[in-house]
Every structure is written in C-alpha cells, then in structure tokens.
Design goal:
single chain; alpha+beta; 10 helices; about 40% helix; binds adenosine-5'-[phenylalaninyl-phosphate]
Length: about 300
Amino acid sequence: MDALRREFLGGKGVLDAQLKNLKNLPAAERQAAGQALNTAKNELLAALDSKRAVLEDDELKKSLASQAGDPTLPPFPFRVGRSHPLTQVMNEINHIFLSMGFAVAEGPEVETDENNFGALNFLPDHPARDMHDTFFVKSKEPLLLRTHTSPVQIREMKAAKPPLRVIAPGKVFRHEAIDATHSSVFHQVEGLVVDKDISFADLKGTLEMFVSRFFGPGVRTRFNPSYFPFVEPGAQMDIWWGDRWLEVLGAGMVHPNVFKSVGYNPDEVSGFAFGMGVERLAMVRYGVTDMRLFYGNHLDFLSQFNR
Ligand code: FA5
C-alpha cells in the first residue's frame, strides 16, 4: 500500500512528474490537463483509503478469530470459592482431635444392618431402633443408609487391635420430622478410644478439652445421663445456647457386648465413644438459629463464613 502510494502520489511519483510536465503543454490544454490530474489524484487517494480500511478490517477479524476465547468462561471479576461452613466446622473438629493424637477413619454411607445396629447391641425388636428409622435396601445382606457414624467404631475395631484412638466424620441419614434443630441428612463426628484402664474421667476430660478449644474458654456445658445400647453408662452433652440448652453429642463407655461383637475381651480393655452433631456445633458457634439455613444454598448467607 505504502509503495503504491509512493509510486503514484509521492514527491517524485508518477502524478508529480505529470504535474511538473504541465508547464511544457500548450497554454490552451494546461487547465484541462491540470483538472484531470487532480481528479485522478483524488480518486487514487480514495481508492487507497478504502482498500486500507478493508485490509485492516480483515486483519482485525483474523486476529480476533485466532485469539477467540471461551465464551462460557465466567466474566470478571472471578468469584473465589470457599468451603461450606459445615465443611469448615468438620475440618476444624478433625484438626482439634488430630492434635490430640486421634487418627481419622471413614466408613460407607450405605451400611450393613449388622454394623449400624446388631454389633452395636441394638436387639432386633428393641425400641431404640425406632429413634433411628431410615431407608432400608432390599438385598441378600440387609443394608441401610447409616443412621449414625457409630458403625465406623465396629469397622475400626474389627480391622485393628487396641489401643485405638480414632474419629470418624461423615454424613448420616434418618427418617425425621425436620425442624430448626433436626434434619433428615446431617453430619456427625464419631470418636472412639480403646485401651487399658480408660475411664469416664478420660471421656469427660477429652470432651471438655475439645469444647474449650472449639468455642474458646467460658462456654457452658452440662452432662446428663442418656441411653444408647452400645454404651454403659451413657451421657449426652448439652451446650448453653442463648436462652436454653442444646444437645450436641451422645457419649459413654463402650458396652461389653460391643467389645464381644468385635472379638475384644471386655475384661482386658475399656474405652469410651462419642458422636457429635456437626450442624448443632456450627449453630452454637455462629449463632445460627435454624439448621435449614445451612442447606439453603443462599450465597449471601453462606459467604459470611469466611475462612
Ligand atoms: C447417636 O447418633 C449416637 N450414635 C451417638 C453416640 C456415639 C453415643 C457414641 C454414644 C457413643 P444421637 O441420636 O443422640 O446419638 O445423635 C448424636 C448427635 O447428633 C445429637 O446430639 C445431635 O447433635 C445430632 N443429631 C441427632 N439427630 C439429628 C438430626 N435429626 N439433625 C441434626 N442433628 C442431629
């Protein structure tokens, strides 16, 4: 383009030579020739400009096509994801127990009836089963959606010899009437310690230590007797929650029948276990009055829990 412009319109170009030549023409022809040259110059300039515009447009299109981005990518500014508050609370619970020497274990959400109930000393027609109604799967070996994380106790004891010190975080399922403090799918963290000479004082001390680290000093707790077929004695721990007590966990000394079901000798070992409700701990921690808010998927609510 530039070469063409120089050749025809430049200082020593074709047009320029013709213009210089005008003076050699007879006077009568000079005016008409000058006008013709001017017209030619303007036409050339216009043609060059329009060609340049077409070429530049082509170039832009080509470069845009070669850099084409993914139109499905999210626009700026990117939103940074973060863990759900219940995941944050579970991770924090895990960390506190890891620092106290516990290992983390896991079990399946679809469990055998035997691990969820039988080996935990729930007799077949015992009313304690009524508090744990769930989905049952018809299969050769009776299966169900686990109602608590306690079956992981059975799996861990069957897999290893004492001493044991494990926690088992996970999801559990119950056929429940749902309200501000009850869900049909919720989370628990199980704890199990088995060794020689483990006492109820060890259980209480461990839980007190956990609570003061999780909530900070000054949190009000109380222990009440409670019944679970797989512990004896059994207790529940409540935490003061604004204007009333909220039950956050069940606990107790491992029942001799549970030790027998996994092949441990109850005369040689003793142990304690607990199962805490993650949603309930999160509610107390953050002053949330309705558990269902955690499942609502409202980002305005969830993004307050910034860690
Ligand atoms: C149990 O599930 C026992 N497995 C706990 C246990 C473990 C006792 C080891 C002894 C030894 P419980 O049903 O009370 O117990 O549930 C334990 C905790 O889970 C409760 O304290 C509460 O914090 C929470 N929880 C129970 N039901 C619900 C529910 N429907 N929604 C949300 N959280 C619940």
